[in-house]
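Final report, Chapter 2: Outcomes

The project's central promise was a pipeline that accepts a single protein chain and returns its three-dimensional structure in a standardized token representation, suitable for archiving and comparison. That pipeline is now operational. To close this chapter, we reproduce one record exactly as it appears in the project archive, with the input sequence first and the structure output second.
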Amino acid sequence: MIDTLFSAFVFPGLLYVLLWTIGLFWFFRKFMAALHKRVGPSFNGKGGSYQTLFDLSKLLTKESITPDGVNPYLFSIMPPLALIIAMLPAAFIPWMDSSVVVDSNYGLLALVILIGIEPFLLFLTGFGSNNKYSFLGGVRILTQSISMETAFFLAALSPALLFGTMNLTEIVQSGTWLSFLILLPGFAMYFVALLGLLEQPPFNIPDAEQEIVYGFYTEYSGTNYFLLKLAEFAEFMAVFAGATTLFLGAYKGIFFDSYFFFFMKMLGIAVAMMTIRAATPRITLAQMLSFSWKYMVPLALLNIAWVLFAKTLWFMGA
């Protein structure tokens, strides 16, 4: 009973996810500050830590305004619901050999469903705001997620096809250097697709400030806005952990296994994503749709064919 409560609320449960999310927020601001030469996150306190503290305290203490005309139920319930759904995938991730809250034979299915449902919740935040800019941002995120999720799901299914299981713990334990090389194209497509699912440059179309004010975030302020941003960074953690688990061997190292390797692999994915964010301009919605359906989906299908061929050639006994 005590072990179950510890796993659910401490590690790898609620407290762990919150610490990871806040730490990722700090690292995000710090890394971007170095690339963009921003003063606050670089020099405000030791390691720029005060800037993160001030950002969080400002959002938590600002008044949460509910504009006239919004759908009061959707407007109020979406921020906490989005955060809860964004945090749930952590329960299925094998952070260590015996550290998983829910060790399910359908862990991969649960992971992709929970990641994939988040954009629909953000669409409802825009719809419930009853604001044309918020609604347009919501429609954009729905259009983008439907386009990118096809390639994302196909790429995420690659390890399940190769190893013959959707249990995330078994996928990690079955991984070898050969399987890593086989799944490398799937990992590349998973990474590009997650940029679209997370609305990160060059796919930050749903919250384009120059076009639609701030998209589905427009009417939110104070605590509600804080919860939505916390949900965004919790989803970052979920997709980074998913990529590390499915393609990079999770906690497995060269000479020994340790959570340290899991942490460093996730950090490497975060650095790659933020470097792309700092260096690439936003593309248009039409360009994103063309890229997704003309290139990403066909390549994802070819990757499935490649994985099945490799399984037949090298893993028939698996």
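Archive annotation: The first helix runs from residue 2 to 9.
This record, like all others produced under the grant, will remain available to the consortium after the project formally closes.
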